[in-house]
Specification:
The chain is α/β, with parallel strands linked by helices. The protein is about 55% helix and about 15% strand. Strand 10 and strand 11 form a beta hairpin.
Length: about 550
């Protein structure tokens, strides 16, 4: 969950530090007050595209920072390690992003600089947005089948299938390449063989290259190490040197140590210094003696380093890139051999992969078919609660034979809002309000299976009335038992269901306009805001209605 959000000079907001709690948080305010500033800040941390227009007009830069806490950070830590970023400390993830007017923007994760692409990847593990444009995700069949797989708990089987499919695509490419391969000349074949032999003879590994680089650094600095280590030894050990002076001072201190308590402790300190200097001198003597390297050894290290630098210039700056180049050259040579035999080998591998995928695909399709019926029934039940009189929600599934990214299934969500209407694909639904409620129903159904900790809803109650709004609020509250939920809303019936309530206000003065964010911490302040949403803060009837709404939800909560 997100526990803290800091925003500086973002849009109309000068500064805000927001502490978030678990459960359901409502964000309200007048139309145009800037309620979306919090959502914009979260989107900024999720890696969405923002330019200099995000910076407050009077500022040179803007910055958004958040603290996120995970009960179990293994998944996020695994991703961070893959990215070369620091792991979470005690399950806490710190993300920040700054945009400047005069230089490139910067992103940080746990104190280390990262890319915008890193933020996008990381965001998939901590936040899920559902705004006016988000229901469009439902139009994509890939997203539909992914939602079904979440409900069916197909993660491991789908992952295994897609690994095999990746290999399958690679073999298909190899076959295509084989059929269209250019015949190499004898000279070209000899050239490739020499290059392969050169890399294999060198046999680079990460450990051997690290050792080579360390030896090269010592070789190149051997004379400097010898001269300066010898000089340090002489400075400490020669007559009238540091060590000699310390030793003489210690002997003099011993003469008076027995008659003066302070002198005794000072004498002991001089002894420690004298012994330490002697030890340091011996260590530098040993360093100078060990830095003497035979000329032939120096030459061998230099030649090996030159050979390695030559390989990196041709094939890339890492061991992996050099070995990958060697692998590609071997592959190119292999395709010049017995084309027919190699083609048979590739086709056998293709058939084997296809057979393995078919077994897993059937298992996945069976699980999808079983779960599709359960998901449909659950979504219909929720849609009825969200104001649809006779909704129909079905999941069309069809099994295919050819391997593909969707594990050999065709999936499409179908919906009808009213009795007598044909059931159609979601793309045919015109009402954004209907789509938003369908998304909410699906998300609520998937709540226990979906591991994304933070769900953000932007006006999911759009185009619904008061009574239905109360049901929307109740479903969001139910959803918050499994996730942290943040919702921007215009409906008091929804806001009354929240555990926490933030008010966004736009303040306009003669020379400036800015946004303020405040937490409504007590019952009376929430009643006043709900009364405003119902019509007027000064209306007794609005305040009475607001009080009843809040009391009812606090009682139910």
């Amino acid at each position: 969950m997100i526990s803290f959000l800091s925003i500086k000079n973002f849009a109309l907001l000068e500064s805000a530090q927001i502490d978030f709690s678990t459960g359901f948080t409502a964000i309200t305010g007048e139309t145009g007050a800037g309620k979306s500033v919090i959502l914009g800040a979260l989107a900024m941390l999720a890696g969405n595209k923002f330019g200099k227009e995000a910076i407050k007009s009077s500022a040179a830069s803007c910055k958004v920072e958040a603290s996120l806490n995970f009960n179990d950070s293994k998944k996020i830590d695994t991703l961070l390690i893959e990215m070369g970023l620091p792991e979470c400390e005690n399950g806490e993830l710190i993300i920040s992003r700054s945009i400047f007017r005069d230089k490139a923007q910067r992103c940080f994760v746990n104190g280390s600089i990262c890319t915008l692409a890193n933020l996008v990847q990381i965001s998939e593990l901590w936040i899920d947005f559902h705004g006016p444009g988000e229901p469009q995700k439902l139009f994509k069949t890939k997203n539909q089948i992914d939602m079904l797989d979440i409900f069916a708990s197909n993660d491991s089987d789908v992952f295994q299938y897609r690994l095999l499919y990746k290999d399958y695509r690679k073999v298909l490419n190899d076959i295509d390449e084989l059929l269209n391969a250019k015949k190499l000349t004898d000279d070209e074949i000899d050239f490739l063989k020499n290059k392969i032999s050169q890399i294999e003879k060198f046999n680079p590994t990460n450990d051997s290259i690290a050792e080579l680089e360390s030896k090269f650094k010592i070789v190149e600095n051997a004379s400097d190490i010898f001269e300066k280590s010898s000089a340090i030894y002489n400075l400490i050990q020669d007559e009238n040197s540091l060590g000699d002076i310390a030793s003489k001072a210690y002997r003099l201190s011993c003469d008076i140590a027995d008659v003066n308590e302070l002198s005794a402790s000072l004498s002991e300190r001089l002894n420690v210094i004298s012994v330490e200097l002697s030890d340091i001198a011996e260590s530098y003597l040993e360093l100078s003696e060990n830095s003497s390297i035979a000329p032939d050894e120096i030459e061998a290290v230099r030649n090996k380093m030159n050979l390695w630098l030559g390989l990196t210039r041709k094939y890339g700056n890492s061991v992996d890139s050099v070995l990958e180049a060697c692998k590609e050259m071997k592959h190119k040579l292999a395709m010049q051999g017995d084309v027919e035999a190699y083609s048979i080998k590739l086709k056998e591998k293709l058939d084997s992969l296809k057979s393995q995928m078919n077994v897993i695909a059937k298992k996945i399709f069976k699980a999808r078919s079983k779960s599709a019926s359960k998901l449909s029934k659950s979504v219909v039940s929720l849609l009825e609660n969200l104001g649809f009189k006779n909704p129909r929600f079905e999941i069309f599934l069809n099994e295919t034979t050819e391997p593909d990214q969707n594990c050999q299934s065709i999936c499409e969500f179908l919906f009808s809002a009213n009795a007598g209407q044909d059931i159609l694909p979601l793309t045919k639904i015109a009402s954004s309000g209907e789509l938003a409620r369908v998304m909410l129903a699906i998300k609520t159904t998937l709540a226990s299976a979906d591991s994304t900790p933070l769900l953000v809803f932007d006006e999911v109650d759009a185009n619904v009335g008061g009574e239905i709004g109360a049901n929307v609020g109740a479903e969001l509250a139910k959803l918050s038992s499994e996730h942290q939920v943040i919702c921007v809303t215009h409906l008091p019936q929804v806001a009354a269901c929240a555990n926490n309530h933030f008010l966004i206000e736009k303040i306009q003065r003669d020379s400036s306009t800015f946004v303020e964010i405040s937490l409504l911490e007590n019952f009376d302040s929430r009643v006043l805001e709900l009364a405003r949403m119902l019509g007027s803060r000064t209306s007794d009837s609005a305040k009475l209605h607001a009080r009843k709404l809040l009391e009812a939800n606090l009682k139910n909560g």
